[in-house]
Amino acid sequence: MTSHEIRRHFLDFFRSKEHLIVASAPLVAKNDPTLMFNNSGMAQFKDFFLGNGTPPSKRVADTQKCLRVSGKHNDLEDVGFDTYHHTMFEMLGNWSFGDYFKKEAIHWAWELLTDVYKLPKDRLYVSVFQGDDKDNVPFDQEAFDLWKPIVGEDRIIYGNKKDNFWEMGDTGPCGPCSEIHVDLRSPEEVAEKPGKELVNADHPQVVEIWNLVFMQFNRKADGSLEPLPARHVDTGMGFERLCMAIQQKKSNYDTDVFSGTINVIEELSGKKYEAGTGMSDVAMRVIADHIRAVSFAIADGLVPSNAKAGYVIRRILRRAIRYGYSYLNLTEPFMTKLVPTLAMQFADVFPELNAQRDFVATVIREEEISFLRTLGTGLGRLDQIIGDLKGKEVIPGETVFELNDTFGFPADLTALIAREKGLSIDETGFQTALQEQKVRSRKDAQSSAGDWIELTELDNKVEFVGYDQPESYAQIVKYRKIQNKQGTQVQVVLDKTPFYAESGGQIGDTGTLRLFAGSGEIGTLTVLDTKKENDLTIHIVENSTGIDELLTEADSVYAAINTSRRAQIASNHSATHLLHSALREVLGNHVAQKGSYVGPDALRFDFSHFSKVTDEQLAEVERIVNEKVREDIPLDEKRNVPIDQAKQLGATALFGEKYGDFVRVITFDPSYSVELCGGTHVYRTGHIGLFKFTGEGSVSTGVRRVEAKTALGAETLVNEQMAVVSELKDLLKAPKDVVKAVQALMDERSTLQKQIEGLQNEKVQQLKNQLLDKVELVNRNGGSGHSRLVEKVDVPSADALKQLAYDLKAKVDNLAVVLGADINGKPQLAVMLPDSLIQGKNLNAGQVVKELAKNIKGGGGGQPFFATAGGSDSSGLDAALAQGKELLG
Length: 889
Ligand code: ATP
Ligand code: MG
Description:
- The chain is of the alpha+beta class.
- 39% of the residues lie in helices and 26% in strands.
- It contains 26 helices and 37 strands.
- Strand 34 (815-823) and strand 35 (826-832) form a beta hairpin.
- Residues 742-781 form a coiled coil.
């Protein structure tokens, strides 16, 4: 059975059991502050378990792209060394939201594995939760009773809380699980040792393939458990491991999920994959694994960067590059060459990669080029460090950390190179430095949340009324306090709200909540921001004394947003849509949105494009947007459009966005701009008034950013610029053409500058002639003697002083000169000596000038025949010259 067939059979099987098959959510988790990447199939359904929304069906199944490289699940360091943990993998899952429970889940799992996939029954083991006295949770008798007739008691394993009790987080839904393990060893090995003894023992051929979670409890903040009113099933099966079991392989990498990519790596490196434990085999596994994680993450909208999720992707990519570099001798970009094979392989399962394959390949290539350069620099620095060790044999941990932290030069690579040179690294010291940094960054991110105080039931979802009205009466559903860097804040949830919660780049609304109880108003709270947590809209208000009483006493709330701020936001958001289409028109259809910021002050739009947007292109885009503004196109807003219909309308669908089955479509002229969007917009483009760019730049490889202002913001911008021009005009005495006037001023300035230089030159020449008259002949000890000139002069610059000394030397043979000048309040000295004094008398202009400079509180130096000095006390010039006369006498 090929991997394609295996995946299809899974979905068909659960379709036949009345499950709705849904698409995978993107790898990057959206609207969930606790999660960076989707790391399990259930992540996209969290809300349904928490009761914050209604699922599209009570039974759902899918294959979900998962990434386990951060947070609670981090398998990164195992990947490549073992044969069954990946960074990115597919998790096949089936769910019951308050519908079927353990019986069906267990029976169907068994039926699928043994009837459809024909896995041998005697090679399967299952685990059930053994109970935990400390936590007051009982043994899962129900699951045990269901499994016993199927697998027999001797193939049931009792699992502890760590392996067999699942919790969503510190609080929330939880329950026992039942895992299914498979033994893939040879009959000889099985005869030697029963598989049961190897379950959960990290044996590469006795692995867990499926985990069935039965959610039946809710954990409260005080740690206690209460039964959930609606019980759920959440299962997750590792697709690659399942393929290994069905295709009877010893490793996930031997299945057809990976063999295509491994073939290409073999071709590129000229080495053969031996499926062993040698480092070149590890490297091939690392590369075959990481290229998936990186490619799919980029296709889902991430780009490698220096922060957050982008940084995680960068690290994964770099890990692969470095294994290739160190163990396969791949010193030119190679990861980028694996993209096409992968894109083809998944074209029908996850089409987002194939659709953006050139973009993905280019981003990876640029990243590779720059990291390979870093590797080069790091290697150079390391050579230097090793040279400086002077016989010591251990590279200090601090140094290893610094290489890692500032050059991105990984510790194990340092260790490897050190080993090659007969050295080692201080591993403990490195770990300590790393740990210290982790503690530092954890401190920065710390925040904690209290329990929700529930006030009224929420029937369904929070209703958003803000598309149509800026104000609304509402009920408080619940609130809680959170501690974060800003101190204590209170999060309030209403049953309906006009407040737009930050999402899709548009920032959250601010405004007020007026609280009413009985017949009167009891207080007003200021909403500082509005955010989304999964499907909940959270109003963030300042904490104040008595706020608990206010919130619990209030029977209703009048929620009102800041409307002028919202109007600016709407203008910026609609302008972003017009901008998107204009960019595609001017730059080409490769332009895809990569991120945006829509605030009251400005808008920012990031998009894929590989070169700088020229001034001419920007001007053209701006012209088109403003033309669309003036056309005053009415907003066409369609809510609850089925996704297929939206695509037919030509909506610019964004890969990496998680859409429900029904979407909102925003159109400004069906032939110009059609987008899927949840944001708030102007009713007619004319409301945007004016659109002005304020900046263009690069965000990361292949992604550009433009910034702009609209409406009042644009007006202010234009007014400021015009004010500058008008001030200039005033200064220039109202010329007809300001630019010409400024140009004329600059021309005039340079002419004058030249004239001044000419005059100064002339003056220096005159001075020189005068000085020639003052040259004295010094007849020392009856010898042939030398000439001497010691004078205070009036010159405009130190350069002129130097020039003067040289000119004099050229005119008079065997001349010794000391010149002093006060140049704009600063004393300056120049000393020039003839050979006769340098050789004959062993004098040195540098030393002479240093000696003389003491008189002017300064210092200087130069060559033996010419030196200069500056000082801070002009009153000492005469003394300096007198001393000079003495010395050269
Ligand atoms: P393991 O103990 O093997 O790491 P787990 O307990 O972390 O597995 P679950 O969180 O229960 O796994 O995930 C459900 C299924 O997903 C597992 O049964 C397994 O088949 C698969 N799985 C988990 N982690 C990975 C991974 N890193 N790579 C590939 N498949 C995985
Ligand atoms: Mg795990």
